Design the sequence.
């Protein structure tokens, strides 16, 4: 299970680095958004991502429950993504699917149960 979260975190870092003008260093002022009603696996994914970012950039990104207004953010889980103002339609994904979308001001990670980002909507 830990390996799955590590792979998601590494995929986020790689996706962010691949986006135009978006590097982990450019994300140093961002927050990680995990909805207050997030599932345990979403919370764990947010903590793992926070730990990995600290290893990469030397700064711990704050974990918050709602979207910040001025800086960019990484949104973990369908509830956080839907509260971000970013388009999220995790319901259209397969049961084990995971989607990562990168924009200049957001990285959105949503998915469904089992091996995706576990949905809090049962």
Sequence:
């Amino acid at each position: 299970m830990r390996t799955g979260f590590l792979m998601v975190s590494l995929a986020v870092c790689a996706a962010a680095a691949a986006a135009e003008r978006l590097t982990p260093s450019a994300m140093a002022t961002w927050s990680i958004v995990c909805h207050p009603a997030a599932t345990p696996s979403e919370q764990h994914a947010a903590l793992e991502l926070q730990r990995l970012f600290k290893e990469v950039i030397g700064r711990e990104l704050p974990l918050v429950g709602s979207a910040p207004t001025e800086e960019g953010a990484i949104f973990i889980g369908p509830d956080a993504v839907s509260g971000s103002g970013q388009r999220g339609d995790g319901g259209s994904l397969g049961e084990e699917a995971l989607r990562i979308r990168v924009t200049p001001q957001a990285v959105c990670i949503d998915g469904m149960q089992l091996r995706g980002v576990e949905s809090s909507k049962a």
Summary: The first helix runs from residue 2 to 18. The chain has a mean pLDDT of 75. The longest strand covers residues 98-103.
